Amino acid sequence: DSAYALRPWILTPYLTPGNENERRYNSAHRRTRTVIERTFGLLKARFRCLHKSGGALQYAPETACKIVAACAIIHNIAIRRGLHLTPEDTDTEDEEQELPHRQPGDRSIANEGRQRRNHIATQY
């Protein structure tokens, strides 16, 4: 996503893919992002605390990660027990996504991110 700066922990798509490896990486990145967004949508539908209208999580990042992981586990248990979400449950209005402001950063961090992305693009 071009809203985010390339970092070792945030691997963005290539802005102008120049070869087949980069195009394949971008395609995989797009598919993965779609799955992640759908997953977050399902979790937010089942657990209102994860949705902005439910108040959102007001915790330290480490605690918020544990809460999201617990929600994912409980969601999977619910699915295994046949407690699927109905279309009404998942019909939440798309909220305006607040995009971060791209921050110019340390070139060495961006270079490390570029190296990781290139490694993934060429190895997988």
From TrEMBL:
Q: Source taxonomy lineage?
A: Eukaryota, Metazoa, Chordata, Craniata, Vertebrata
Chief localisation class:
nucleus
Q: Which InterPro entries match?
A: HARBI1-like, HARBI1_dom
Q: What is this protein called?
A: DDE Tnp4 domain-containing protein
Region described as Disordered: spans on this chain: 84-124
Pfam families with a match to the protein in the record: DDE_Tnp_4
- Annotated DDE Tnp4 domain residues: 1-76
Bias (Acidic residues): 88-97
Subcellular location field: Nucleus
Look up keyword Nuclease and say if it applies.
Answer: yes
Q: Which cofactor does it need?
A: a divalent metal cation
**GO cellular component terms, A-Z:** nucleus
Q: Please give one Gene Ontology molecular function term for this protein.
A: hydrolase activity
Keywords, sorted A to Z: Hydrolase, Metal-binding, Nuclease, Nucleus
Family membership noted in the UniProt record:
Belongs to the HARBI1 family.
